[in-house]
């Protein structure tokens, strides 16, 4: 690696015809980090030109590299995206204090990237001290986005609001955030006007509405505003009046007794929002107040109703007003009838997510079934992304669905009762997922469920040639299943498996493959310490991290394998054994 | 549609008063049909717990209570908590009911939401007022005691506790009165 910029020499036969300046100019236009990775592999000159022109770095696994290595290679970074914990940490499968703490990164960045502007974190631990450090160390800081992070409270937000004079984006989504009151919002100075994105939808308490209203009024460039559920309808009206330019709105609580005049005023405020393309929030919404939205729904492309326990009738009333929807998230309270309404009203729909309202109550026969899914597939041929939680499914239904929608890139089906067979035939759901992988040749992401034998994995290995992410739970019969996938899916990057009978032979069959993947997670499988040790020994550039509940049992509870150029991590807690 | 569990609790025989469609005597058949559907759904976890399985054949018994599996279904804590909060908020607002007892100098108040069914409620009343209420039967009301638990419903009528399904009772009960002596006997004779 040549840290110095190589000057073009006309005598050198290996040098490019372009002067560095031109090459850099061209490369600076490249945004996609995948393209940039490809460019950097062409030759040394291109590697250097690329590294000098990269302004945004995406790090999919914070332990795959160290902040020192990153800052050593890329001197001009202004924007960083980091992802930390394994995805199953979202479901409490990773103990607390596992790691992925942002602080050390910030310390290095403060020295190497004093002009850092943007930080986007997913599944990282972020403390209030870190937020304060961030707010006071980077004078140009503009945008922070925290998704599924933990470790901080509203005090940290106060630090950001107080010190970041040029903030354009404060996006706090679905985090485990401690609520110490809503006073942080009042910390934005009165002369602060640069905010474009404000999302505090996941806050669990009140903010000062006066402060919020004044903030919205003076930030004329605000285009994204997502408030929490403590903001009432009549307060929403006052906010909308100040910000008709919004493109992305998250309402607060949508249930309040309004007088006819208030109703009319709210309707008028929505009518004035001519650029609205995303709508969310809508806590406790019922169809009673939907009419205030109708005028704004024509331009909607993304509607998130997953916090509103709507019935099918509510959707039947609302959806005809939203003909341009591309993305729709709902709760399964809308049932199959609601899904039929989707099929008939949303011909452009590309993404559907159906979340369960009562996920832990398996005695209730509510929610959606295979018929709802079929109805959507009939009416929405452009569907390519689905996340579907249900209590029953059949092989035949899934086959029909993918016949109707062969372009799936993301197919995530969760039959909520583990190992449940086809409820009509009693057979495993192998043929369902076989149909998916055979028909949907563009499939990149797959999550499987239901009663599944090794046959499912044979199908996946044989047909899912573009598969990058696979999530497995309570599935498979033997090592053979996992071996099929590791052998057959050339583009596989992320494999996460829980509660499945895959053991050492399966783990070790992927020896040659794991360096080409981002990570492998296996929990509650049949892997033992010995196999993990062998893996670690054979592949020194992999980090093999083991978590064991029981000291005496030779089986490991959780093993997390990932490639890294930074070596074993030095911040592993006592319950994580790095082999 | 109806969850039969409340009726199966304790000594009070509610099967006889359960509201359902169907001829008397057809009950047993219907029950079996329900539980075999349940069997289909529950088959696999039973077998899984034994550590091995093949295919999808039915298990013998549907487990009535399922242990929750950690992290399943895969829903982010944030989303889980927003529904838990709703439920908790609903639970925090209890259904408080005045209870008077004939001859007692002052009234008591109870929260109906705390009780799972009639036998729970009656045990609590027995504790609170230090008395025995006796066995309920549809035919004879409360036998074996001079007390009868009654309640005033939405229409202003005084009803014997135990005649209607628990959920209906919770929503129609305005206040409770434990009747004593001959008045109680009058009500108990199913007028």
Describe this entry's structure for a reader.
The complex is a heterodimer of chains A (579) and B (191). With 579 residues, chain A is α/β, with parallel strands linked by helices. Chain A has a 21-stranded mixed β-sheet, covered by helices on one side. Chain A has a two-stranded parallel sheet with strand order 5-7. In chain A, helix 8 runs parallel beside helix 9 and helix 17 packs parallel to helix 18. The relative contact order of chain A is 0.05. The N terminus of chain A is likely disordered. The longest helix of chain B is centred in the N-terminal third of the chain and has 23 residues. Chain B has a domain of 88 residues: Roll (Ubiquitin-like (UB roll)). Chain B is elongated. Chain B has a 5-stranded mixed β-sheet, covered by helices on one side. Chains A and B meet through loops of A and helix 1 and helix 2 of B.
Question: Topology of this protein?
Answer:
The complex is a heterodimer of chains A (579) and B (191).
Chain A: H1 20-27, H2 33-40, H3 44-53, E1 56-59, H4 67-73, E2 79-83, H5 103-112, E3 118-122, H6 128-137, E4 143-147, E5 150-153, H7 154-163, E6 169-173, E7 176-178, E8 197-199, H8 209-218, E9 224-226, H9 233-242, E10 248-250, H10 260-271, E11 278-280, H11 294-297, E12 302-304, H12 312-318, E13 327-331, H13 335-345, E14 351-355, H14 370-379, E15 385-390, H15 395-404, E16 410-415, H16 430-439, E17 445-447, H17 454-463, E18 469-473, H18 479-488, E19 494-498, H19 504-509, E20 519-523, H20 529-538, E21 542-547, E22 558-563, E23 576-578
Helix pairs in contact in A: 1-3, 5-6, 6-7, 8-9, 9-10, 12-13, 13-14, 14-15, 15-16, 16-17, 17-18
Chain B: H1 27-49, H2 77-92, E1 96-101, E2 108-111, H3 118-129, E3 135-137, E4 141-143, E5 147-152, E6 158-160, H4 166-172, E7 175-180, H5 182-188
Parallel strand pairs in B: 1-7
Antiparallel strand pairs in B: 1-2, 3-4, 5-6, 5-7
Domain Transport inhibitor response (chain A): 75-121
Subcellular location (chain A): Nucleus
Keywords (chain A): Auxin signaling pathway, Developmental protein, Nucleus, Ubl conjugation pathway
């Amino acid at each position: 690696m040549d840290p110095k910029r190589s000057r073009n020499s006309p005598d050198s036969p290996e040098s490019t015809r372009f002067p560095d300046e031109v090459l850099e100019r061209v490369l600076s236009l490249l945004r996609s980090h995948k393209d940039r990775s490809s460019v950097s592999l062409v030759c040394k000159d291109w590697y250097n030109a690329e590294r000098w022109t990269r302004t945004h770095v995406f790090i999919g696994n914070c332990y795959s590299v160290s902040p020192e290595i990153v800052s050593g290679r890329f001197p001009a970074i202004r924007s960083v995206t980091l992802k930390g914990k394994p995805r199953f940490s979202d479901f409490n499968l990773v103990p607390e204090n596992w790691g992925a703490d942002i602080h050390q990164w910030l310390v290095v960045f403060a020295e190497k990237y004093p002009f850092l502007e943007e930080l986007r974190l997913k599944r990282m631990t972020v403390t209030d001290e870190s937020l304060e450090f961030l707010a006071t160390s980077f004078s140009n800081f503009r945008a922070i986005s925290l998704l599924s992070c933990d470790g901080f409270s509203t005090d940290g937000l106060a630090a950001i609001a107080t010190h970041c004079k040029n903030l354009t984006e404060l996006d706090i989504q679905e985090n485990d955030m401690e609520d110490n009151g809503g006073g942080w919002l009042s910390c934005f100075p009165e002369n602060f006007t640069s905010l474009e994105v404000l999302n505090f939808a996941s806050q669990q308490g009140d903010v000062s509405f006066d402060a919020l209203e004044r903030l919205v009024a003076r930030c004329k460039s605000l285009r994204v505003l997502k408030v929490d559920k403590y903001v009432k309808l009549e307060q929403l009206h006052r906010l909308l009046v100040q910000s008709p330019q919004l493109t992305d709105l998250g309402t607060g609580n949508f249930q309040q007794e309004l007088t006819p005049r208030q109703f009319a005023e709210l309707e008028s405020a929505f009518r004035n929002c001519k650029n609205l393309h995303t709508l969310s929030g809508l806590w406790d919404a019922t169809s009673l107040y939907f009419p205030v939205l109708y005028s704004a729904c024509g331009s909607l492309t993304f509607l998130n109703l997953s916090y509103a326990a709507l019935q099918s009738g509510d959707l039947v009333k609302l959806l005809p007003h939203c003909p341009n929807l591309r993305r729709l998230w709902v709760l399964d309270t809308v049932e199959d009838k609601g899904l039929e309404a989707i099929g008939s009203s949303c011909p452009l729909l590309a993404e559907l997510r159906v979340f369960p309202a009562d996920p832990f109550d398996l005695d209730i026969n509510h929610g959606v079934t295979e018929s709802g899914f079929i109805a959507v597939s009939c009416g929405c041929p452009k569907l390519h992304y689905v996340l579907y939680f249900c209590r029953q499914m059949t092989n035949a239904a899934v086959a029909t669905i993918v016949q109707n929608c062969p372009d799936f890139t993301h197919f995530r089906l969760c039959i909520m009762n583990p190992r449940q067979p086809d409820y009509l035939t009693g057979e495993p759901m192998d043929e369902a997922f076989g149909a998916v992988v055979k028909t949907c040749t563009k499939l990149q992401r797959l999550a499987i469920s239901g009663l599944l034998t090794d046959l499912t994995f044979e199908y996946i290995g044989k047909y899912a040639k573009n598969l990058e992410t696979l999530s497995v739970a309570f599935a498979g019969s033997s090592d053979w299943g996992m071996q099929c996938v590791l052998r057959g899916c050339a583009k596989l990057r992320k494999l996460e498996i829980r509660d499945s009978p895959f053991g050492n032979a399966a783990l070790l069959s992927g020896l040659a493959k794991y360096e080409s993947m981002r990570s492998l997670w296996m929990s509650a499988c049949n892997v033992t310490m010995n196999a993990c040790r062998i893996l670690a020994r054979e592949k020194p550039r992999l980090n093999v991290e083991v978590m064991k509940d029981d000291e005496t049992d030779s089986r490991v509870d959780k093993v997390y394998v990932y490639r890294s150029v930074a070596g074993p991590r030095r911040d592993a807690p006592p319950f994580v054994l790095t082999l | 549609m109806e969850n039969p569990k409340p009726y199966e609790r304790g000594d009070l025989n509610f099967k006889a008063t359960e509201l359902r469609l169907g001829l008397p005597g057809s009950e047993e058949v219907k029950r079996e049909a329900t539980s075999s559907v349940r069997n289909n759904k529950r088959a696999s976890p039973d077998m899984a717990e034994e550590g091995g399985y093949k295919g999808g054949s039915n298990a013998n018994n549907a487990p009535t209570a399922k242990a929750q599996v950690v992290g399943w279904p895969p829903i982010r804590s944030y989303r889980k908590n927003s529904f838990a909060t709703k439920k908790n908020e609903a639970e925090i607002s209890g259904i408080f009911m005045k209870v008077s007892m004939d001859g007692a100098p002052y009234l008591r108040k109870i929260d109906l939401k705390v009780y799972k069914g009639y036998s729970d409620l009656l045990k609590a009343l027995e504790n609170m007022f230090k008395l025995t209420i006796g066995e309920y039967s549809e035919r004879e009301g409360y036998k074996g005691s001079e007390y009868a638990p009654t309640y005033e419903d939405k229409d202003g009528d005084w009803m014997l506790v135990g005649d209607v399904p628990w959920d209906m009772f919770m929503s129609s009960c305005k206040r409770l009165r434990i009747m004593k002596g001959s008045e109680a006997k009058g009500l108990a004779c199913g007028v």
